C-alpha cells in the first residue's frame, strides 16, 4: 500500500499547478505563499525572486509545509495533499536546466519572459505527506514518509 500511496501522491502533484507554501519568519510568524510549481516524482520546485520573504524565511529555517488541493465546494469530494518537508536553493546548473525545461513545458507562458538574474529555484523534498480523499469517507486521510 505504501508504494501505491506514493504513486497517487506523485500523480496528484503532477496534475496540479499551484500550492500554498507555509514558512516561518525569523521572528516566528507563520506566512503562507501561493506558488506555481512543478514536480519531479515527489520533489517540488518553485521559481521565485531571491529577495522575497519566503526565501529569507527558508534561509533561516528550511522546514516548510505546503498544501495542494481542489477548489471544489463539495466537501465530500475533497482531495488534497498536506506535505511537510525541507526546502533548499537549487545551485546545480544541470538540475536548474532540467527543472527549467519541466517548468516551460507545464507553463508555456514563461517561454516569452525575459531571463531574470534575480530568479532562483527552490527545491522541496518531502518527509511526510498526508493524502486526503473525502470521496472515500469524510475525513479520510492516509500518510506516508518519504
Distance between the termini: 14 Å
CATH superfamily: Electron Transport, Fmn-binding Protein, Chain A
The CATH architecture can be given as: Roll
Report the total helices.
3
Just give the CATH class.
Mainly Beta
H/E series:
HEEEEHEEHEE
What percentage of residues falls in helices of 4 or more residues? 10-25%
Mean pLDDT over all positions: 95
Count of DSSP strands: 8
Structural shape: globular
Instruction: Quickly count the domains.
Output: 1
Largest pleated sheet:
8 strands, antiparallel
GO molecular function, one term: oxidoreductase activity, acting on the CH-CH group of donors
Domain Pyridoxamine 5'-phosphate oxidase N-terminal: 5-132
Keywords: Oxidoreductase
Protein name: Putative heme iron utilization protein
Strand and helix map with partners:
Layout: H1 2-14, E1 18-24, E2 30-36, E3 38-40, E4 43-49, H2 53-60, E5 63-69, E6 79-89, H3 93-106, E7 119-133, E8 141-145
Antiparallel strand pairs: 1-2, 1-5, 3-4, 4-7, 5-6, 6-7, 7-8
Amino acid at each position: 500500500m505504501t508504494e501505491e500511496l506514493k504513486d497517487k501522491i506523485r500523480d496528484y502533484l503532477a496534475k496540479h499547478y499551484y500550492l500554498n507554501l507555509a514558512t516561518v519568519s525569523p521572528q516566528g510568524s507563520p506566512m503562507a505563499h501561493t506558488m506555481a510549481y512543478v514536480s519531479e516524482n515527489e520533489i517540488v520546485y518553485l521559481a521565485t525572486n531571491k529577495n522575497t520573504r519566503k526565501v529569507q524565511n527558508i534561509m533561516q529555517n528550511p522546514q516548510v509545509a505546503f498544501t495542494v488541493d481542489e477548489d471544489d465546494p463539495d466537501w465530500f469530494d475533497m482531495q488534497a495533499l498536506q506535505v511537510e518537508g525541507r526546502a533548499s536553493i537549487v545551485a546545480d546548473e544541470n538540475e536548474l536546466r532540467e527543472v527549467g525545461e519541466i517548468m516551460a513545458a507545464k507553463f508555456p507562458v514563461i517561454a516569452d519572459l525575459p531571463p531574470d538574474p534575480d530568479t532562483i529555484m527552490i527545491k522541496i523534498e518531502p518527509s511526510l505527506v498526508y493524502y486526503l480523499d473525502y470521496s472515500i469517507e469524510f475525513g479520510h486521510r492516509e500518510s506516508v514518509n518519504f
